[in-house]
Design brief:
Helix content: 25-40%
Number of helices: 27
Distance between the termini: 19 Å
Number of strands: 25
Strand content: 15-25%
Strand order of the largest sheet: 24-23-22-21-20-19-18-25
Bound molecules: adenosine-5'-diphosphate, magnesium ion
Oligomer: single chain
Largest sheet: 8 strands, parallel
Shape: globular
Structural class: alpha/beta
Length: 670
């Protein structure tokens, strides 16, 4: 969960905010102010709350790199190059400050902090009248902004952090950059929160990868397969259908043995294309490739469009757009979708003769919005296309960040977002081997009713045999469906086992692995648990990894060593991005059913230790965010006390989850 500017008291506070004012500039004039306008709601809100000062910082182009390129070009063309004039026209922030002042009008006064530096502006800021907006010069004039070395990054980050009591990040378009003003600053700022633009982007884009309203249909187009592999793989986990169009579709068609003529192709990606097709088949995701095309002899706006009705394209032609039969197919697939994500045009939409396919897709997506679907468009060119056709307002969300939205859809963690995140409580009920189907339905209904207004994340994990019925009851509610185990193999001759594919088919979202009963009664070792965990993550599940020491281990003083070992081994080979889908549950195995109890302080100590283990493995941001549930005997009367502990972020509840009147007060502790 990201923490927003709404959760902090701004009155009388100095705010330092990162915005993405990286707008196109020509001769010192803003050419398109969309990005500036997009930050205005957050700016207005902060001023209206009575902040003392609001200092804004942004990059604008890349002065060093851009100038080098422009200089080389001028030299090549035999022209003189005036560096100062060039920088002034393209990279200075003063005209951006003026533009902002015009947009803000009476809502606030904007002052520019000076061309000289972003350093040493504290006195300048403190001298401003209350309610002033201060615009700093382009952060990228300082090489520390984009440095690889952490000490360099920290030098600028620390200086910037001094301008605020609160750091707000509203720069979604730069959220994928690990820079001084986007991420490192959070190490020094007392509080880091997200602005409204960032919040909206995350709220639309993130669920597509984590928990979309299904069916999800993805439309992926654009020029190159190579730039979209990661997003294709990521979407396979949740999508029911994947529409692959545009230039990249020809690599897929060629891989399938079709003739593609002179169409754009990446011969080094043919294997990748086959692998993706194979993975889709295994995951039961329908792949929709073009079945007809609009071809042209040349890549030229004036080239005559030729309809290629059959799948094969002759040697004289290149595919420039999808044909009418393909659009019919798209329509059939898209009408079934409750969520649509679109990244990449399906044709060369910049040329009017080849824009029809992309325009029709835009219309179909717009229709889905009016039917109540969630429609999200990301990617620089797709957004340009939607704007060109005047349909941007007909989409639920049009992303302001090309690279950032693509990386979010790939399931990556973006540094600029991560620094604004806080942990959400997660309460899970493990129903173990109890109840008939009918009984579990009764319990599920009672849990749904009692947690209706619950503010945290919830999960119930019934027996395999009851998953379907419970799933039907909790569908569309705030409760997730969990499984208590899975097989280490995808399918095959494994008598008595249940596979991740079968669990996915049942709508399971989370799999509990390494539970103490699995470890001790059924002798599951770390290697097996790790294998299951990686398989579950690869199929898009969240995982709750249980760790914890036995009485004997505890008495020998080995509690920490055991937890460390189980955490490390359980997570072996798991990337920091995948870790976002892992919750750890600490089970004091020694306390369960022995009459011994862990005090909240005991529990806190070991949770803190486990978080430290994660920090060593994955760094401070990942450690701050991982949810660690307590799996001891949590009851209504000790829940609030346990949850109040700094490092206890929820509970994995056994016995007490079998009665709604016990589970609800735990889940809704206060
Ligand atoms: P986005 O910015 O939305 O992520 P991409 O950058 O991946 O999209 O791709 C956009 C480009 O793909 C556009 O410039 C478009 O002209 C090009 N494109 C689409 N279809 C074709 C095609 N059939 N042949 C060549 N280029 C294409
Ligand atoms: Mg692009």
């Amino acid at each position: 969960m990201i923490k927003t500017v709404k959760t902090v008291d701004l009155k009388g506070k100095r705010v330092i905010m990162r915005v993405d004012f990286n707008v196109p500039m020509k001769d010192g004039v803003v050419q398109d102010g969309t990005r500036i306008t997009a930050a205005i709601p957050t700016i207005k809100y902060i001023l209206a709350q009575g902040a003392k000062t609001l200092t804004l910082m942004s990059h604008l182009g890349d002065p060093a790199k851009d100038a080098e390129k422009a200089k080389a070009k001028a030299e090549k063309d035999g022209k003189t190059f005036d560096l100062d004039k060039y920088i002034k026209g393209k990279h200075r922030m003063a005209p951006v400050a003026d533009y902002l002042q015009k947009k803000l009008g009476k809502a606030g006064t904007v002052v520019f902090a000076g061309e000289d530096s972003c350093y040493n502006k504290k006195d300048f800021i403190d001298a401003q009248k209350p309610g002033t907006v201060i615009m700093l010069e382009n952060t990228r004039f300082h090489k520390e902004e984009t440095a690889k070395d952490a000490n360099e990054l920290d030098k600028l980050a620390k200086a910037l952090a001094e301008y605020g009591d609160i750091f707000v990040n509203d720069a979604f378009g730069t959220a994928h950059r690990d820079h001084a003003s986007t991420a490192s600053i959070a190490k020094f700022a007392p509080v880091s929160v997200a602005g409204f633009l960032m919040e909206k982007e995350v709220n639309y884009l993130e669920p597509i990868v984590t928990n979309p309203v299904k069916p999800l249909v993805a439309i992926i187009g654009g020029a190159k397969v190579s730039s979209k592999i990661a997003v294709l793989e990521s979407l396979l986990k949740n999508a029911s259908a994947l529409i692959i169009g545009g230039g990249m579709s020809y690599t897929f068609l060629k891989a399938q043995g079709k003739k593609i003529g002179k169409s754009l192709v990446e011969d080094d990606q043919l294997d990748t294309a086959l692998k993706i097709l194979d993975a889709a088949k295994k995951a039961g995701v329908e792949i929709v490739l073009p079945v007809d095309h609009i071809g042209a002899e040349k890549f030229d706006p004036a080239s005559k469009p030729v309809v290629v009705a059959a799948g094969n394209i002759s040697d004289k032609l290149m595919g420039m757009d999808v044909g009418p039969k393909t659009l019919e197919l798209y329509k059939k697939v898209l009408v079934k979708a409750k969520t649509i994500v679109w990244n990449g045009p399906v044709g060369v939409f910049e040329f009017d003769a080849f824009a029809k396919g992309t325009e029709e897709v835009a219309k179909l997506v717009a229709e889905a919005t009016s039917r109540g679907g969630i429609t999200v468009v990301g990617g620089g060119d797709s957004v340009a296309a939607v704007n060109k056709f005047g349909l941007a307002s007909k989409m639920s969300h049009v992303s302001t960040g090309g690279g950032a939205s693509l990386e979010l859809l790939e399931g990556k963690r973006l540094p600029g977002i991560e620094v604004t995140r806080c942990r959400d409580y997660f309460i899970a009920g493990n129903w173990k081997m109890h109840m008939t189907r009918a009984e579990s339905v009764v319990l599920a209904k009672a849990v749904v009713k009692s947690l209706k207004n619950g503010k945290h994340r919830y999960l119930v994990a019934p027996s395999f045999t009851n998953l379907y019925d419970v799933g039907e009851v909790i569908k569309g509610t705030n409760i997730l469906l969990g499984a208590q185990n899975c097989a280490a193999e995808e399918q095959g001759a494994h008598t008595g086992e249940v596979s991740v594919l079968q669990l996915k088919d049942l709508g399971v979202a989370v799999i509990i692995l390494g539970h103490s009963e699995r470890r001790h009664t059924y002798k599951e070792n770390d290697a097996l648990i790790n294998k299951k965990l990686k398989l579950a993550l690869a199929h898009g599940f969240e995982v709750i990894l249980c760790v914890g020491e036995t009485l004997e281990e505890r008495e020998k003083g080995k509690a920490e060593a055991v937890c460390k070992h189980q955490t490390e081994k359980g997570l072996e080979g798991v990337s920091v991005n995948e870790l976002a889908k892992v919750t750890i549950a600490y089970e004091p195995v020694w306390a369960i059913g022995t009459g011994k109890t862990a005090t909240p302080e005991d529990a806190q100590n070991i949770h803190k230790f486990v978080r430290g283990t994660i920090e060593k493995l994955y760094g401070v941001h990942a450690a701050k965010q991982i949810v660690i549930q307590y799996g001891g005997s949590v009851k209504p009367d000790n829940a609030a006390q346990l949850m109040a502990m700094e490092d206890i972020d929820g509970a994995l509840v056994g016995g007490a989850s079998l009665k709604a009147e016990l589970f609800a007060p735990i889940a809704k502790f206060s």
